[in-house]
Amino acid sequence: MRKNYASLFRFLIMFLGALSLSCAPESKTCAIVNRPILTQNLGHNSGQPLDTAILEFDNRNYLFVTYMINPKDKNLTAPVSIYSFDQNDAIKSPVENLGKTQHVRSFSKIKSPFGEGVLLADHGVDGNGYPGGKLSLFIKNFKTDLFEDFSQKVDIGLNFSFNAVAVKRKNSRFDDILVAPYNSGSSKVVYLKSDQSKYIDDSQSLPRDWKAAHVCFMTATALDLEKDGQDEIVLGGCDLEKTQAAVKSDQLMVWKENRWQFSSPETFPPRKKSASWGTVYWLKDKDRLIALTHNKGFTEADLQIFHYNSHLKKFEEEPVELKANSAEKYFHKIQKFHDDYIVLIRYGSPRNDSLNLFKMKKNSSGKWNQEEVCLASPPGEVALGIDVFKGANGKEKLAVTYYSGRLDIFE
């Protein structure tokens, strides 16, 4: 009987969601509008939701939702809400709330000496002298099906961390950790090396100019370009301090002679200077990398798409054409869905005239052009997060989470 009631309730939620979408104005440019196959309500915790990520553990998907602490409340923290999906890609109850965070900037799945889990970088509250935040490490307990807080195992103190990246080292059972911060005298670049039971500070293995904040790199991602079991690390360049040397391009770090070294400056094409504050987000897609950039005033945003040429040992830029838009904005996140890249925009001032997403589609001449995302959404909704994942049926799916707490899943 309970299963019948549950099925009836799920059908009612989907019907009401479809009914609300049918009242939304249709796009004038989309021949076909993709409608959600499932709509649910998360019921956000009190506080301002900040970001989302969907990660898979043991063939089950989990949605992570973080919250931002108001700068006036610099001594407060918020837990991360963790939602598990069932065999129908519906959210299960109850939600798990774990950890103490303030402004999470990145999620990284990690294989640590303590188990498999997720690593979160936190730069702390905005303003108030930017005291910085702490790393969080949540390890999956496969017996209880819950996550456990192991953050004390990666405690590096307060740091203005933008990314914390899991790095695969050749012949090592566990991932190392690179912490890429806001690169100034008040924050530190950290490298934690894994052994059989713990992490050891091995920051001395990093390039000296970066550690001393003579150059600015504030984001990072790891990928095995040579397919040899040893990750290389890509660093996102930035222009923050006038005293630092200009960073003309993003940078590749390679493991050589028992330390991390910068590769040739020509490994990457020049950075776009229209959004010069820095490369704030990386997306890996096989041998392709997509960089999101914006300026410090959040008024100009841009993106670059690179592919790795294994013969020349360098990244080459693919042509991109963005539509001019004078609105106050920055590009917060990008995900690949089917053959296109979907970009999440965040505005300085709220906008309700259209959904804050667009897509980059490659045309027959090889150029990436900006187009409308043909997703049905309720009028007035603002997207909080976008996440692509493999559903229980094996199909690729897109989850769009809204600030209202609504969650739409598309195929």
Structure description:
The protein has a 5-stranded mixed sheet with strand order 22-26-25-24-23, with no helix packed on it. Strand 20 and strand 21 form a beta hairpin. The chain has 411 residues and is mainly beta. The two termini are 31 Å apart. The protein has 2 helices and 29 strands. It has a single domain, classed as YVTN repeat-like/Quinoprotein amine dehydrogenase (Methylamine Dehydrogenase, Chain H).
Helical residues, percent: under 10%
Radius of gyration: 21 Å
Number of β-strand runs: 29
CATH homologous group name: YVTN repeat-like/Quinoprotein amine dehydrogenase
Structural class: mainly beta
CATH architectural designation: 7 Propeller
How many distinct helices? Answer: 2
Described by strand count, sense and barrel closure, the largest sheet is:
5 strands, mixed
How far apart lie the N and C ends? 31 Å
Mean of residue pLDDT? 87
CATH topology: Methylamine Dehydrogenase, Chain H
Domains, number: 1
CATH class: Mainly Beta
- Portion in beta strands: over 45%
Mass-distribution shape: globular
